User: Fold this.
Amino acid sequence: MSANLKYLSLGILVFQTTSLVLTMRYSRTLKEEGPRYLSSTAVVVAELLKIMACILLVYKESKCSLRALNRVLHDEILNKPMETLKLAIPSGIYTLQNNLLYVALSNLDAATYQVTYQLKILTTALFSVSMLSKKLGVYQWLSLVILMTGVAFVQWPSDSQLDSKELSAGSQFVGLMAVLTACFSSGFAGVYFEKILKETKQSVWIRNIQLGFFGSIFGLMGVYIYDGELVSKNGFFQGYNRLTWIVVVLQALGGLVIAAVIKYADNILKGFATSLSIILSTLISYFWLQDFVPTSVSLCHQDGVLWPDLGSLQPPTPWFKGFSCLSP
Assistant:
Protein backbone atom coordinates (compact mmCIF):
# COMPACT_ATOMS: atom_id res chain seq x y z
CA MET A 1 0.00 0.00 0.00
CA SER A 2 2.81 2.40 0.93
CA ALA A 3 4.60 1.61 -2.35
CA ASN A 4 1.43 2.42 -4.29
CA LEU A 5 1.05 5.72 -2.41
CA LYS A 6 4.71 6.55 -3.10
CA TYR A 7 4.41 6.17 -6.87
CA LEU A 8 0.97 7.74 -6.91
CA SER A 9 2.26 10.84 -5.11
CA LEU A 10 5.25 11.07 -7.46
CA GLY A 11 3.01 10.74 -10.50
CA ILE A 12 0.72 13.46 -9.20
CA LEU A 13 3.75 15.68 -8.54
CA VAL A 14 4.95 15.32 -12.14
CA PHE A 15 1.45 16.07 -13.42
CA GLN A 16 0.98 19.05 -11.06
CA THR A 17 4.37 20.66 -11.77
CA THR A 18 4.17 20.25 -15.54
CA SER A 19 0.52 21.27 -15.78
CA LEU A 20 0.97 24.34 -13.55
CA VAL A 21 3.89 25.71 -15.55
CA LEU A 22 2.23 25.19 -18.91
CA THR A 23 -1.27 26.36 -17.99
CA MET A 24 0.08 29.39 -16.12
CA ARG A 25 2.27 30.34 -19.07
CA TYR A 26 -0.61 29.84 -21.51
CA SER A 27 -3.08 31.80 -19.36
CA ARG A 28 -0.69 34.76 -19.04
CA THR A 29 0.03 34.99 -22.78
CA LEU A 30 -3.39 34.11 -24.20
CA LYS A 31 -4.95 37.08 -25.95
CA GLU A 32 -8.59 37.54 -24.97
CA GLU A 33 -11.09 40.33 -24.98
CA GLY A 34 -11.58 42.17 -21.70
CA PRO A 35 -9.25 42.48 -18.71
CA ARG A 36 -6.74 39.75 -17.90
CA TYR A 37 -7.07 38.04 -14.52
CA LEU A 38 -4.92 39.47 -11.74
CA SER A 39 -2.12 37.22 -10.50
CA SER A 40 -2.37 38.77 -7.03
CA THR A 41 -5.99 37.63 -6.64
CA ALA A 42 -5.14 34.18 -8.02
CA VAL A 43 -2.50 33.76 -5.28
CA VAL A 44 -5.06 34.64 -2.59
CA VAL A 45 -7.67 32.23 -3.95
CA ALA A 46 -5.05 29.45 -4.14
CA GLU A 47 -4.14 30.01 -0.48
CA LEU A 48 -7.80 29.84 0.56
CA LEU A 49 -8.29 26.60 -1.38
CA LYS A 50 -5.19 25.14 0.28
CA ILE A 51 -6.57 26.03 3.73
CA MET A 52 -9.88 24.35 2.91
CA ALA A 53 -8.12 21.21 1.66
CA CYS A 54 -5.92 21.00 4.77
CA ILE A 55 -8.91 21.46 7.08
CA LEU A 56 -10.61 18.55 5.31
CA LEU A 57 -7.48 16.42 5.79
CA VAL A 58 -7.31 17.31 9.50
CA TYR A 59 -11.03 16.51 9.72
CA LYS A 60 -10.32 13.08 8.23
CA GLU A 61 -7.45 12.53 10.70
CA SER A 62 -9.86 13.48 13.50
CA LYS A 63 -12.10 10.54 12.48
CA CYS A 64 -14.59 12.86 10.76
CA SER A 65 -15.60 14.47 14.05
CA LEU A 66 -16.35 18.19 14.01
CA ARG A 67 -15.79 18.39 17.75
CA ALA A 68 -12.36 16.76 17.44
CA LEU A 69 -11.51 19.02 14.50
CA ASN A 70 -12.45 22.12 16.49
CA ARG A 71 -10.36 20.93 19.43
CA VAL A 72 -7.30 20.27 17.26
CA LEU A 73 -7.50 23.66 15.54
CA HIS A 74 -8.04 25.43 18.86
CA ASP A 75 -5.22 23.62 20.67
CA GLU A 76 -2.65 23.71 17.88
CA ILE A 77 -3.31 27.18 16.44
CA LEU A 78 -5.15 29.49 18.85
CA ASN A 79 -3.52 28.19 22.03
CA LYS A 80 -0.03 28.39 20.54
CA PRO A 81 0.19 31.95 19.17
CA MET A 82 4.00 32.09 19.15
CA GLU A 83 4.25 28.84 17.21
CA THR A 84 1.67 30.16 14.76
CA LEU A 85 3.49 33.49 14.34
CA LYS A 86 6.67 31.66 13.34
CA LEU A 87 4.93 30.74 10.10
CA ALA A 88 4.39 34.41 9.19
CA ILE A 89 7.95 34.70 7.83
CA PRO A 90 7.91 31.79 5.33
CA SER A 91 4.30 32.56 4.50
CA GLY A 92 5.11 36.12 3.45
CA ILE A 93 8.06 34.87 1.40
CA TYR A 94 5.97 32.16 -0.28
CA THR A 95 3.33 34.76 -1.16
CA LEU A 96 6.01 36.95 -2.77
CA GLN A 97 7.38 33.90 -4.57
CA ASN A 98 3.98 32.87 -5.96
CA ASN A 99 3.45 36.36 -7.37
CA LEU A 100 6.94 36.35 -8.88
CA LEU A 101 6.24 33.08 -10.67
CA TYR A 102 3.32 34.69 -12.49
CA VAL A 103 5.64 37.54 -13.55
CA ALA A 104 8.31 35.07 -14.67
CA LEU A 105 5.93 32.98 -16.77
CA SER A 106 4.50 36.12 -18.34
CA ASN A 107 7.96 36.91 -19.69
CA LEU A 108 9.74 33.57 -20.18
CA ASP A 109 8.88 30.46 -22.16
CA ALA A 110 7.92 27.43 -20.09
CA ALA A 111 11.11 25.46 -20.78
CA THR A 112 13.46 28.33 -19.85
CA TYR A 113 11.45 29.02 -16.72
CA GLN A 114 11.50 25.36 -15.63
CA VAL A 115 15.25 25.01 -16.00
CA THR A 116 16.19 28.40 -14.52
CA TYR A 117 13.89 27.81 -11.55
CA GLN A 118 16.02 24.78 -10.67
CA LEU A 119 18.55 27.25 -9.25
CA LYS A 120 16.43 26.88 -6.12
CA ILE A 121 18.39 23.63 -5.62
CA LEU A 122 21.53 25.75 -5.19
CA THR A 123 19.91 28.31 -2.90
CA THR A 124 18.31 25.56 -0.83
CA ALA A 125 21.69 23.86 -0.45
CA LEU A 126 23.39 27.09 0.62
CA PHE A 127 20.69 27.91 3.17
CA SER A 128 20.74 24.31 4.44
CA VAL A 129 24.47 24.56 5.07
CA SER A 130 24.18 27.93 6.84
CA MET A 131 20.91 27.41 8.77
CA LEU A 132 20.77 23.65 9.40
CA SER A 133 24.53 22.98 9.53
CA LYS A 134 24.26 20.34 6.82
CA LYS A 135 27.40 19.06 5.15
CA LEU A 136 27.64 18.43 1.41
CA GLY A 137 30.02 16.02 -0.27
CA VAL A 138 32.34 16.67 -3.19
CA TYR A 139 29.94 15.29 -5.79
CA GLN A 140 27.10 17.36 -4.35
CA TRP A 141 29.09 20.60 -4.67
CA LEU A 142 30.20 19.53 -8.17
CA SER A 143 26.56 18.96 -9.15
CA LEU A 144 25.68 22.47 -7.95
CA VAL A 145 28.49 23.94 -10.07
CA ILE A 146 27.18 22.03 -13.11
CA LEU A 147 23.70 23.31 -12.26
CA MET A 148 24.89 26.92 -12.34
CA THR A 149 26.69 26.25 -15.64
CA GLY A 150 23.55 24.76 -17.12
CA VAL A 151 21.43 27.74 -16.08
CA ALA A 152 24.03 30.09 -17.55
CA PHE A 153 23.68 28.27 -20.89
CA VAL A 154 19.92 28.77 -20.69
CA GLN A 155 20.38 32.54 -20.76
CA TRP A 156 23.09 32.48 -23.46
CA PRO A 157 21.57 34.21 -26.50
CA SER A 158 21.37 32.19 -29.69
CA ASP A 159 21.72 33.65 -33.18
CA SER A 160 17.95 33.78 -33.63
CA GLN A 161 17.58 35.62 -30.34
CA LEU A 162 20.18 38.17 -31.34
CA ASP A 163 18.26 38.91 -34.51
CA SER A 164 14.95 39.27 -32.68
CA LYS A 165 14.11 42.25 -30.49
CA GLU A 166 11.18 40.62 -28.78
CA LEU A 167 10.87 36.92 -28.02
CA SER A 168 7.76 36.82 -25.85
CA ALA A 169 4.93 38.91 -24.51
CA GLY A 170 7.25 40.77 -22.16
CA SER A 171 10.83 41.45 -21.19
CA GLN A 172 13.11 38.45 -20.71
CA PHE A 173 15.17 40.44 -18.24
CA VAL A 174 12.14 41.05 -16.03
CA GLY A 175 11.26 37.36 -16.21
CA LEU A 176 14.82 36.34 -15.35
CA MET A 177 14.99 38.69 -12.35
CA ALA A 178 11.60 37.42 -11.16
CA VAL A 179 12.59 33.76 -11.33
CA LEU A 180 15.99 34.39 -9.69
CA THR A 181 14.34 36.24 -6.80
CA ALA A 182 11.85 33.37 -6.52
CA CYS A 183 14.77 30.93 -6.32
CA PHE A 184 16.30 32.75 -3.35
CA SER A 185 12.96 33.15 -1.60
CA SER A 186 12.11 29.49 -2.22
CA GLY A 187 15.45 28.33 -0.82
CA PHE A 188 15.22 30.40 2.34
CA ALA A 189 11.53 29.75 3.02
CA GLY A 190 11.90 26.01 2.38
CA VAL A 191 14.83 25.62 4.79
CA TYR A 192 13.17 27.85 7.40
CA PHE A 193 9.98 25.76 7.15
CA GLU A 194 12.00 22.54 7.44
CA LYS A 195 13.70 23.91 10.55
CA ILE A 196 10.32 24.67 12.14
CA LEU A 197 8.95 21.23 11.26
CA LYS A 198 11.94 19.50 12.83
CA GLU A 199 11.72 21.54 16.03
CA THR A 200 8.01 20.85 16.64
CA LYS A 201 5.67 17.86 16.44
CA GLN A 202 2.72 19.57 14.81
CA SER A 203 1.01 17.97 11.81
CA VAL A 204 2.19 19.11 8.39
CA TRP A 205 -1.44 19.87 7.55
CA ILE A 206 -1.74 22.16 10.59
CA ARG A 207 1.44 23.92 9.47
CA ASN A 208 -0.03 24.36 5.99
CA ILE A 209 -3.18 25.88 7.50
CA GLN A 210 -1.01 28.37 9.39
CA LEU A 211 0.96 29.12 6.22
CA GLY A 212 -2.23 29.60 4.24
CA PHE A 213 -3.71 31.91 6.87
CA PHE A 214 -0.79 34.31 6.80
CA GLY A 215 -0.43 33.85 3.04
CA SER A 216 -4.03 34.99 2.54
CA ILE A 217 -3.44 38.09 4.69
CA PHE A 218 -0.23 39.03 2.86
CA GLY A 219 -1.86 38.25 -0.46
CA LEU A 220 -4.83 40.51 0.25
CA MET A 221 -2.41 43.29 1.22
CA GLY A 222 -0.70 42.84 -2.14
CA VAL A 223 -4.04 42.98 -3.95
CA TYR A 224 -4.93 46.23 -2.18
CA ILE A 225 -1.52 47.87 -2.72
CA TYR A 226 -0.83 46.88 -6.33
CA ASP A 227 -4.20 46.10 -7.87
CA GLY A 228 -6.66 47.96 -5.66
CA GLU A 229 -7.77 50.28 -8.46
CA LEU A 230 -8.35 47.46 -10.92
CA VAL A 231 -10.27 45.41 -8.35
CA SER A 232 -12.54 48.32 -7.47
CA LYS A 233 -13.13 48.95 -11.16
CA ASN A 234 -13.62 45.45 -12.58
CA GLY A 235 -14.05 43.24 -9.50
CA PHE A 236 -11.90 40.72 -7.63
CA PHE A 237 -12.55 37.91 -10.11
CA GLN A 238 -12.05 39.95 -13.28
CA GLY A 239 -10.80 37.93 -16.22
CA TYR A 240 -11.40 34.61 -14.47
CA ASN A 241 -12.36 31.74 -16.74
CA ARG A 242 -12.09 27.97 -16.72
CA LEU A 243 -8.36 28.07 -17.47
CA THR A 244 -7.75 30.53 -14.62
CA TRP A 245 -9.48 28.25 -12.14
CA ILE A 246 -7.38 25.32 -13.35
CA VAL A 247 -4.22 27.36 -12.66
CA VAL A 248 -5.48 28.33 -9.19
CA VAL A 249 -6.39 24.75 -8.26
CA LEU A 250 -3.04 23.42 -9.51
CA GLN A 251 -1.18 26.05 -7.50
CA ALA A 252 -3.14 25.16 -4.36
CA LEU A 253 -2.45 21.48 -4.98
CA GLY A 254 1.31 22.08 -5.11
CA GLY A 255 1.93 22.40 -1.38
CA LEU A 256 -0.21 19.37 -0.59
CA VAL A 257 1.53 17.20 -3.20
CA ILE A 258 5.00 18.12 -1.92
CA ALA A 259 3.93 17.18 1.61
CA ALA A 260 2.63 13.82 0.35
CA VAL A 261 5.83 13.11 -1.60
CA ILE A 262 8.00 13.86 1.44
CA LYS A 263 5.77 11.61 3.57
CA TYR A 264 5.51 8.61 1.24
CA ALA A 265 8.64 8.91 -0.94
CA ASP A 266 11.94 10.76 -0.53
CA ASN A 267 13.89 13.70 -1.93
CA ILE A 268 15.83 11.59 -4.44
CA LEU A 269 12.65 10.30 -6.07
CA LYS A 270 11.28 13.83 -5.88
CA GLY A 271 14.31 14.88 -7.96
CA PHE A 272 13.46 12.29 -10.61
CA ALA A 273 9.90 13.62 -10.72
CA THR A 274 11.17 17.20 -11.12
CA SER A 275 13.52 16.15 -13.91
CA LEU A 276 10.72 14.36 -15.76
CA SER A 277 8.60 17.48 -15.37
CA ILE A 278 11.32 19.60 -17.01
CA ILE A 279 11.51 17.21 -19.98
CA LEU A 280 7.73 17.15 -20.40
CA SER A 281 7.51 20.95 -20.11
CA THR A 282 10.20 21.37 -22.75
CA LEU A 283 8.49 19.00 -25.19
CA ILE A 284 5.04 20.50 -24.70
CA SER A 285 6.45 24.04 -24.82
CA TYR A 286 8.01 23.22 -28.19
CA PHE A 287 5.21 21.21 -29.81
CA TRP A 288 2.10 22.81 -28.28
CA LEU A 289 2.88 26.35 -27.08
CA GLN A 290 5.57 26.78 -29.80
CA ASP A 291 7.43 29.36 -27.69
CA PHE A 292 10.66 27.39 -27.26
CA VAL A 293 13.13 26.44 -30.01
CA PRO A 294 15.71 23.86 -28.87
CA THR A 295 19.34 24.45 -29.87
CA SER A 296 22.55 22.54 -29.26
CA VAL A 297 23.27 24.89 -26.36
CA SER A 298 19.84 24.41 -24.83
CA LEU A 299 20.11 20.61 -25.11
CA CYS A 300 23.51 20.78 -23.44
CA HIS A 301 22.22 22.92 -20.57
CA GLN A 302 19.36 20.44 -20.01
CA ASP A 303 21.96 17.82 -19.04
CA GLY A 304 23.76 20.28 -16.79
CA VAL A 305 20.56 21.02 -14.92
CA LEU A 306 19.17 17.48 -14.84
CA TRP A 307 22.25 15.81 -13.37
CA PRO A 308 21.93 17.51 -9.94
CA ASP A 309 18.31 16.29 -9.82
CA LEU A 310 18.98 12.78 -11.09
CA GLY A 311 22.03 11.99 -9.01
CA SER A 312 23.42 14.81 -6.91
CA LEU A 313 24.69 12.26 -4.37
CA GLN A 314 26.61 10.23 -6.95
CA PRO A 315 28.90 10.91 -9.94
CA PRO A 316 27.29 10.73 -13.38
CA THR A 317 26.84 7.18 -14.64
CA PRO A 318 28.58 6.03 -17.87
CA TRP A 319 25.30 5.88 -19.83
CA PHE A 320 24.47 9.43 -18.76
CA LYS A 321 27.89 10.72 -19.79
CA GLY A 322 27.54 8.97 -23.12
CA PHE A 323 24.49 11.04 -24.02
CA SER A 324 25.43 14.36 -22.51
CA CYS A 325 27.85 17.22 -23.00
CA LEU A 326 29.71 15.87 -19.95
CA SER A 327 31.27 13.19 -22.17
CA PRO A 328 34.83 13.86 -23.47
